[in-house]
Design a protein that fits this description.
Radius of gyration: 33 Å
Strand order of the largest sheet: 1-2-3-4-5-6-8-7
Structural class: alpha/beta
Helix content: 25-40%
Distance between the termini: 13 Å
Largest sheet: 8 strands, mixed
Number of strands: 39
Strand content: 15-25%
Number of helices: 28
């Protein structure tokens, strides 16, 4: 923790500032001691009166104190203190002191968590404490904190020890506390008991007027206070000159003043107990350096006062369940089950407009703007438990804390689908790398890997987002990929079937019993294969019967009903027929009502309808992906057998002690590192001259490959640094001399390898992304690795079955299964290689880049014939114990 400290949330949603103790904190801590009850002082210091506590404050703020302490402030007052005094054995004795007014709000636990982070950074592995028997509050704190507490009973006290190992139980307990605090904090924003509009105006053209009008028209039941010093009344409501003049206090303030006035307004709100701000004003970080300074000042004011902040530079917020429309949106969103956050006001407005047009209402909407404080991570915490929300949709331009987002989205997605439209797919920044893997791993690939692992449904357009959200909000998830298409016209039905095939969905032949039932119900002119065609004469009753029949087929997981107006019984009756068939179905039913995007809603069931078959199929494919993700194991695959992680760790630490900034490993060291994880490699001998190359060739056996080595040589074949199929000693000698002459100082040596047998060339790679974590890659290897771009990335470590899924998804996968009469390659061995690389980089974030290219996959096994590994000190990973606000 820096001297500036961090802000975090307590159980009731209030905010506290925690920082290292300073000598100047003596007066504030003496005031804290003066506020202690006699009981609290006794339980903490084992003695009556306040003399000992005051002496304690003088000691910890004086010279020569051997410990480390954190102090918590709220509203300018010291509210808590946590200290640790290390010994020489990797342990530290701790003590926690909390203001009586803060008991039961989670401050003691929060201080203990943060102290554990500080201890870990100092190499302390265990805390100890002595607690009086009657100190039930401290015992409860320790029992519920998530640490594995050991107790030793004394005459009047417990001697307690607890290791600081970051166990799953501890992380789960901290996540639960963070969730409780985050939800309580966001209720002040989305469920306020009163709203003030600062900058409200009588002029209908102003933003402040539109926000006030939307609050009134939305039916908000709480108190609404216009704040404007130049008038007494706006829209029939009494206006107040300042927030301080508002009777009864303000929970949420919506600020619509010029940007330069916003910091002053925020200070005024802070002084008068406002709990949250929505700043719609523009003119902050989006405008340049001066705006960024103003935004930082605004955030500092809010943090010091414990106010949550939406924006600045946003449209506002909506909660339809509360009738709260604190925005300047042009229309009031309809109530529904979709929660929406958008970084872009324009995208958010368009999204809500289209959602309303298709009948999809929203539970709440937050225009995040510049995301100075409240972000998608905060909102995921809130929407996870929101009874009014079934699906979460996010439009993101950036990630604040990607790893925390992934953890939250994975947890929320297990209950409620999370749909994300992420802009910025192009990689404008570039990356100073020299491996195939890192060059291919654009920032968007890292984002895609993160979202895929988290189970997030990633869509490409606003229309895709709304199409998918309508399905996920209204219908059950499918049990598989088998789709039946039922319609009244052949063309759209065939288009739907084609779209299914293109999306990896199946359109299977229906069971004989199903076809027989369809023949009886539809007559001889209907087609009862899949797609099922009622023909243009098929009426509403036949449509319902056909849909119910295919829904009952055990070989069908989802049904798409296609209706082409104006045939059959007409649009209204046909839509009613589709809804009737969907009643009580445990499989998803979608409709394509050609030319119409809508929601078929008969009061008992809702069926999403799409204008074109491709829309329906794309939405269904996302629903299938979501269902399959929920069915996969959530934990990483078991560690491969025969690995030696301790030896790999020792090798890496030794290398970084020798070259602290990191380096490309020489071939021998790289081979040793990979060998500790059982990664199969071709026999390789390093040489430093032509005669050494000849001797190495004699050891490995001819024919051999000769490859130049050197820190600057990456794509060796491009510069003449690879010679293959050398069959005599003279060829080996001449090849080395020719390479050395051509490459000059760039060639520092070479390696000799026996020629591998014929097989498929694959590349396996990995890298440590500083924001998203370790990624692993597999693709077509050799000289085609960059040309064809046939590769797949996933987050490491891989989950059970994920290595095989990656390999099967490659375009070159048929080459591995015996293409055109060739013998099938050893795919299980390739999966094993990929899993081992995944585990290696997950265990060792110091591996910045890794390439195995090519890996020759033969019918007998695999062997990596070229290896490059770069080590670098990794960026500090965020502690899983930290609940600090971003």
């Amino acid at each position: 923790m820096t001297d500036a400290g961090e802000h975090a949330l307590l159980r009731d949603g209030s905010m506290v500032h925690i920082r290292p103790l300073a000598r100047s904190d003596g007066a504030a801590l003496h005031a804290l001691v003066d506020r202690l009850s006699e009981q609290s002082a006794y339980l903490r210091f084992f003695t009556g009166g306040l003399r000992t506590p005051h002496a304690y404050v003088d000691r910890v703020t004086g010279d020569g104190w051997p410990g480390h302490a954190l102090v918590a402030f709220m509203g300018g007052q010291a509210m808590g203190l946590a200290e640790m005094i290390p010994d020489d054995g990797g342990r530290a004795e701790i003590g926690v002191l909390v203001d009586d007014r803060m008991h039961g709000r989670g401050l003691g636990t929060l201080l203990l968590e943060q102290l554990a982070i500080e201890a870990d950074a100092r190499g302390i592995a265990e805390f100890t404490a002595t607690v009086l028997w009657e100190n039930r509050a401290m015992m409860e704190l320790l029992a519920t904190a998530g640490f594995r507490v050991r107790r030793r009973f004394g005459d009047h006290e417990y001697d307690i020890g607890f290791p600081l190992a970051c166990t799953g139980e501890l992380v789960t307990a901290i996540e639960a506390r963070e969730h409780t605090a985050g939800v309580a904090s966001l209720k002040r924003v989305l469920r306020p008991w009163s709203v003030a509009v600062i900058g409200a105006s009588r002029d209908p053209r102003t933003v402040g007027h539109r926000i006030l009008r939307n609050l009134l028209d939305g039916g908000y039941s709480g108190a609404i206070y216009p704040v404007n010093p130049h008038t007494d009344e706006i829209l029939g409501l009494p206006a107040f000159p300042t927030v301080s003049a508002v009777p009864g206090g303000v929970c949420l303030a919506v600020v619509a003043t010029p940007a330069e006035a916003v910091p002053k307004v925020a200070r005024h709100c802070a002084e008068h107990g406002v709990q949250a701000l929505v700043v719609v004003s523009a003119g902050f970080a989006e405008t340049g350096a001066e705006g960024a300074r103003r935004e930082a000042e605004l955030l500092a004011i809010c943090r010091d006062a414990g106010m949550r902040l939406v924006g600045p530079n946003c449209l506002g917020i909506v909660n339809t369940a509360e009738g709260l429309n604190a925005s300047f949106l042009p229309a009031i969103p309809a109530r529904g089950r979709l929660a929406v956050m958008s970084q872009s006001g324009a995208v958010g407005s368009a999204l809500l407009e289209q959602a309303g047009a298709t009948g999809l209402g929203v539970s709440s909407f937050v225009s995040a703007g510049n995301k100075a404080d409240i972000s998608g991570n905060d909102l995921l915490q809130y929407w996870e438990d929101d009874p009014d929300t079934s699906v979460v949709a996010l439009y993101l331009e950036s990630f604040g804390n990607p790893r925390k987002f992934a953890a939250l989205a994975r947890r929320v997605g297990a209950r409620k689908p999370v749909v994300v439209l992420k802009s910025g797919r192009s990689d404008a920044g570039g990356r100073a790398v020299r491996s195939h893997t890192a060059a291919a791993a654009t920032s968007d690939i890292a984002v895609d890997s993160l979202l895929r692992r988290a189970g997030v449904v990633r869509v490409e357009t606003v229309r895709d987002l709304l199409d998918t959200a309508r399905l996920l909000a209204c219908q059950p998830l499918p049990g598989g990929r088998r789709v039946a298409v039922v319609g009244n016209s052949g063309g759209p039905g065939v288009l739907a079937a084609d779209a299914c095939a293109a999306c990896g969905l199946e359109v299977p032949e229906l069971a004989e019993a199903t076809r027989s039932a369809l023949r009886r119900a539809l007559g001889p002119s209907a087609a009862v294969a899949n797609p099922v065609d009622l023909t243009a004469d098929g009426g509403a009753a036949q449509l319902t019967e056909a849909l119910r029949t295919v829904l009952a087929d055990p070989g069908v997981d989802a049904v798409i009903a296609v209706y082409t107006p104006p045939f059959g019984s007409g649009a209204a009756a046909s839509k009613a027929a589709i809804a009737a068939a969907a009643h009580g179905a445990d499989k998803p039913v979608l409709a394509c009502v050609v030319g119409e995007d809508s929601l078929i809603d008969d009061g008992a069931v809702q069926v999403p309808a799409y204008a074109y078959p491709e829309q329906a199929v794309t939405a269904l494919r996302h629903a299938v992906d979501q269902a399959e993700w929920r069915g996969r194991p959530a934990s990483p695959a078991a560690g491969p057998p025969g690995i030696r992680p301790g030896r790999a760790r020792s090798l890496i630490e030794a290398e970084l002690r020798f070259t602290p900034s990191g380096r490309w490993l020489d071939p021998e060291t790289a081979h040793r590192l990979l060998g500790h994880y059982g990664i199969a490699m071709a026999e390789t001998i390093s040489v430093d001259g032509p005669e050494g190359a000849v001797e190495a060739a004699a050891l490995t056996g001819l024919p051999v490959a000769l490859k130049a080595t050197g820190p600057a040589l990456v794509h060796k074949s491009d510069v003449g640094g690879v010679r293959l199929d050398l069959r005599t000693a003279e060829q080996v000698r001449d090849a080395y001399r020719d390479m050395a002459a051509a490459l000059g100082d760039a060639m520092t040596g070479a390696v000799v390898q026996r020629m591998a047998g014929a097989g498929v060339e694959i590349i396996i790679g990995a890298l440590e992304d500083p924001r998203f974590g370790p990624l692993v890659m597999v693709g077509m290897g050799g000289i085609a690795a960059d040309l064809l771009g046939d590769r797949v990335f996933r987050a490491a470590p891989l989950l059970d079955g994920e290595a095989g899924e990656m390999i099967r998804s490659l375009r070159c996968a048929p080459l591995l299964s015996g293409y055109r009469g060739r013998p099938p390659a050893a795919v299980p061995a390739l999966e094993d290689q990929l899993a081992r690389v995944s585990r290696l980089v997950a265990d060792n974030p110091e591996i910045a880049e890794l390439d195995l290219n090519p890996v020759i996959v033969t019918p007998r096994g695999t062997a990596a014939v070229d290896v490059r590994v770069r080590l670098a000190p990794p960026p500090p990973a965020p502690s899983p114990l930290s609940r600090a606000l971003g």
